[in-house]
Design brief:
The structure holds two protein chains of two kinds.
Chain A: H1 2-28, H2 36-55, H3 59-66, H4 88-116, H5 127-161, H6 170-178, H7 180-192, H8 206-209, H9 213-241, H10 254-286, H11 299-333, H12 340-353, H13 372-381, H14 383-397, H15 406-429, H16 431-437, H17 441-471, H18 477-503, H19 518-548, E1 580-581, E2 596-597
Antiparallel strand pairs in A: 1-2
Helix pairs in contact in A: 1-2, 4-5, 4-6, 4-19, 5-9, 5-10, 5-11, 5-17, 6-9, 7-9, 9-10, 10-11, 10-12, 11-14, 11-15, 11-17, 12-14, 15-17, 15-18, 17-18, 18-19
Chain B: H1 2-25, H2 35-68, H3 86-116, E1 123-130, E2 133-138, E3 143-145, E4 150-154, E5 159-165, E6 170-174, E7 179-183, E8 189-193, E9 208-211, E10 223-229, H4 231-247, H5 265-276
Parallel strand pairs in B: 1-5, 4-10
Antiparallel strand pairs in B: 1-2, 2-3, 5-8, 6-7, 6-9, 9-10
Helix pairs in contact in B: 1-2, 2-3
The chains are: A mainly alpha, B alpha+beta.
């Protein structure tokens, strides 16, 4: 715990320094010394640097530079997770636990929102409070969806699945994680500073004139952006340079491919959200007026820059979900992944096309009519590469020997949910239909079906699938299955009626609606409470199993990828020696095939 | 093997039939109050009809496999080592490509062309969004009022909305017309509609202007009644509106037929004021 407290203390010192510097500068230029919003920005930037110093991110370089001896990493047991640690498995768990906690908190916020929406008129929250809760829910969930699978499973599993002992840049990896706690603090800080009411999209001019909390939102997005870019560099480098001998690109597990696609998107596009946030911050604290028409700015410009990142970002959220689903489906159908190359090509096709669809969020934003058609065309074409994931999934389960354990149920649910999410996306990509449905509950239902139904169900498939590997213990299968059916049914009962609500005149982001929509909203709220309750069972199962679950074997599923060849949980440097990959990981049905061999075993080739 | 394919095909046909049956019997759409609504509803229905066989195909394979290919508990057995079926994959890509290209043309391009076909209007209504109310002007009739709670237009008349905003982005959405356009500060956006059916908010809540872009605390209550009237009734409404606008000095908060139904605008605004305090 010590590094965390040290980080907080250094962060506080940094913040004080930042504010002091700002006051001095302002006085030097003859301005009044104190101004709140610039002070917040300076305090945060210096505080963040202080936090990273205090946690120990720069120790290795700084101590070497100053000629001091380097501190060995001696922390053991649970304290490792609160310490600066460069082991990719520790970092994966740090990401996973922190982000699942954020997921549960943001989910709880949704319960309050649904309570307010149970009937028309004001109940629990007034409109301002509702907007703040909704914005915090959305923003936190977006961070969770962007970072959880890549941060947690990407970090933990990609090095093992490519046969490496760690990531290519272990310290950079730790740095990318230690950016995340400040993001969580900023979200709490935003709530304490009066919240922000701009939704997760933060459109100006509203975002540039609204409460102080919106500034915290901008800083949070900027910070998690850094983390994403650094994580992406690391993943791409690791996969390119550290694959075990014999692990050609054509033998990579499909999950690794999906993480590569995700990392490419994060690396290329995250800078644009950083830019959008920076421009808003400068509008607020330095009076630039990029988005203020009174000062020659253009508010629609923000939407272009924002969606130029944020549309690829929805594939950052969904591609790893596809990857986990396909991986799990092959191992639990006990059949080779059907049309492996087509599925990989499909995911890469999504990566490419996602760069040219952003303005479909803006069909009614008042942009040039000439832009409507090209963006409708690209958006509708993206259904073709996405369809290849379905081809692969259905082809794999066809005539397989389906082992319907909890991870498999979640993986199949990804296919079912994304079917609905994808098809309703086609409705929204059609310009005429979108004129009606834009900014309604149809959109709310659509993106929950894709991001929760695809991405988060994929996350849960991954949690159950790799739980024995990561913790060394088995979860309770019965509770897992109950959790699945509970969550799956409640999820559909919650979000399916929202399509109807949207068509019938319920716009999004409102605390109150026309009385005629009361009945169906009550139903949605009740279903949402049932959905929320399902996570209590999940947390109980996870915590109890982690503490006193039955010890897990090295390979409880009889799966073939590299992580199942080593003990559960994996030892410090993963493999006793560099593994030798001899075939792809999906050789089911052919006796005698293996994906890889762990030397030193007497080499069969020599005798 | 052959039997499996026959059963799945039958299942696909069955799901498609049931789905299309529902699509053709259940009315998924609210009141259709304008020519634009007819175009957009046709697009929606076509997409629904086309998407049902796609969904049915995936569901048929998923559900059938779930029951038919389920392994008995506790033993791990491998399935056949089938890695690809290039003909199936090609057919899949071709099918989805043809479908995607088709919907680009119909309903996509067709709908856009129909919506953009007629750029003339007999009546111009200017709407300006302000946090958190609407200001309305009828430039042809020299009528303007602030804090508007209603707008009116004659039926079967081409109307052009000129939309802008004073502060942040709002959006003018009239569900009965199925159209929506953002109100952006610093520019004027336009929306053309031809109302085809007489109607008011009291008769159907889809006859309303609803702000559809999050604009702050008062966002959910930024609504106005839309009155689509017979031409004579519209003239009477204009006269009454001018008198009231003059009496209220430009304001029209006292205009009849609103109040309660709009969800208690009064309560809403006090709530906003008290909220702006902190």
């Amino acid at each position: 715990m010590k590094p965390v407290f040290k980080g907080l203390a250094w962060g506080a010192i940094g913040a004080a320094l930042g504010v002091g510097l700002l006051v001095l500068l302002r006085l030097f230029f003859g301005l009044p010394g104190w101004k709140l919003e610039p002070a917040v920005v300076m305090a945060y930037l210096f505080g963040l640097s202080g936090w990273l110093l205090g946690v120990g991110v720069w120790d290795y370089w700084a101590r070497g530079w100053l000629g001091l001896p380097n501190r060995p990493y001696t922390t053991t047991g649970w304290r490792r997770y609160f310490d600066f640690d460069t082991d990719h498995k520790v970092i994966g768990i740090q990401y996973g636990v922190l982000l699942v906690a954020l997921f549960l908190i943001a989910g709880l916020l949704a319960m309050f929102m649904r309570y307010e929406l149970m009937q028309p008129g004001r109940d629990l929250l007034n409109s301002a409070q509702y907007n703040r809760l909704m914005s915090l829910h959305g923003t936190t969930m977006i961070f969770v969806a962007v970072a959880t699978i890549m941060g947690a499973f990407g970090n933990y599993l990609v090095p093992i699945m490519v046969g490496a002992d760690d990531m290519a840049y272990p310290r950079l990896n730790a740095l990318s994680f230690w950016f995340v706690p400040p993001v969580a603090l900023l979200l709490v800080g935003a709530a304490l500073a009066g919240g922000f009411d701009t939704g997760w999209t933060g459109y100006p001019p509203l975002a540039a004139v609204t409460k102080l909390g919106a500034l915290f939102y901008n800083l949070a997005f900027l910070t998690i952006g850094f983390s994403s870019i650094l994580g992406a560099i690391n993943i791409i480098t690791t996969v390119i340079t550290m694959r075990a001998p014999g692990l050609s690109w054509g033998r990579l597990p499909v999950f690794v491919w999906s993480i590569i696609g995700t990392a490419i998107l994060s690396l290329l596009f995250t800078q644009f959200i950083g830019l959008a946030m920076l421009m808003i911050i400068l509008d607020r604290v330095a009076g630039f007026g990029f988005f203020d028409p009174a000062r020659g700015g253009n508010p629609v410009l923000y939407q272009h820059v924002f969606w130029f990142y944020s549309h690829p970002a929805v594939y950052v959220m969904i591609l790893p979900g596809f990857g986990i689903a396909l991986e799990v489906i092959s191992h639990f159908a006990r059949k080779p992944l059907f049309a492996y190359r087509w599925a990989v090509a499909g995911m890469m096709g999504v990566v490419v096309l996602s760069a040219v669809v952003w303005a479909h969020h803006m069909f009614v934003a008042g942009m040039s009519e000439k832009l409507l058609i090209p963006f409708m065309v690209t958006t509708e074409l993206i259904s073709v590469p996405t369809g290849l994931v379905f081809l692969s999934a259905l082809g794999t389960i066809w005539r397989g020997k389906l082992n319907l354990k909890t991870p498999m149920l979640f993986a199949l649910a990804v296919i079912f949910n994304f079917l609905i999410g994808g098809i309703t996306g086609v409705f929204l990509s059609d310009v005429p239909v979108d004129m009606h449905l834009q900014d309604t509950y149809f959109v709310v239902a659509h993106f929950h079906y894709t991001i929760v139904g695809g991405g988060i169900f994929g996350l849960f498939a991954g949690i159950y699938y790799w739980f024995p590997k990561i913790t060394g213990r088995m979860y309770n299968e019965r509770l897992g299955k109950i959790h699945f059916w509970w969550m799956f049914i409640a999820f559909n009962l919650t979000f399916l009626p929202m399509f109807w609500l949207g068509i019938h005149g319920m716009n999004r982001r409102i605390a109150d609606y026309v009385p005629e929509l009361g009945g169906l909203n009550r139903w949605v709220s009740l279903a949402a409470f049932v959905l929320g309750a399902s996570f209590i069972l999940f947390v109980y199962n996870m915590v109890r199993s982690w503490v006193r679950g039955e010890k897990a074997a090295a390979n409880p599923w009889g799966a073939r990828t590299l992580e199942w060849l080593i003990p559960s949980p994996p030892p410090l440097h993963n493999f006793p020696s560099v593994p030798e990959v001899v075939d792809d990981p999906y050789g089911y049905g052919v006796p005698g095939t293996v994906h890889a061999r762990l030397s030193p075993s007497p080499s069969p080739a020599s005798d | 093997m052959r039997r499996d394919i026959v059963v799945v095909t039958l299942l696909w046909a069955l799901f498609t039939l049931v789905g299309e049956g529902i699509a053709f019997t259940v009315d998924f759409l609210p009141v259709q109050g304008a020519e634009e609504a007819a175009i957009i509803d046709e697009a929606f229905r076509l997409l629904l009809v086309l998407s049902i066989p796609v969904a049915a195909l995936v569901l048929a394979f998923l559900l059938y496999s779930l029951f038919r290919f389920r392994a008995s508990d506790g033993e791990l057995q491998d399935g056949p080592p089938v890695r690809n079926h290039p003909a199936v994959a090609r057919l899949w890509v071709l099918g989805s490509l043809v479908l995607a290209v088709y919907i680009v043309f119909n309903p996509g391009l067709k709908g856009i062309r129909e919506l953009e076909a007629n750029r003339t209007a007999d009546l111009v209504i200017q709407i300006e969004g302000v946090q958190w109310h609407w200001n309305v002007r009828y430039p042809q009739y020299d009528l303007s009022y602030e804090w508007a709670l209603q707008i009116a237009m004659p039926v079967d008349t081409r109307v052009k909305f000129e939309i802008t905003s004073q502060d942040v982005i709002h959006s003018v959405w009239i569900p009965a017309f199925r159209t929506k356009m953002d109100a952006v500060p610093g520019k004027v956006t336009t929306l053309y509609v031809t109302p085809t059916q007489v109607g008011t908010y009291e008769a159907d809540p889809n006859f309303r202007v609803q702000c559809a872009e999050l604009c702050g605390t008062g966002h959910p209550l930024m609504r106005m009644t839309v009155r689509v009237l017979e031409p004579e009734a519209f003239q009477e409404w204009l006269e009454a509106a001018k008198v009231q606008a003059a009496m209220a000095g430009g304001g029209m908060s006292g205009m009849s037929g609103m109040g309660e139904e709009m969800g208690g605008m009064g309560e809403g605004s006090t709530e906003m004021e008290s909220d702006a305090g902190h």
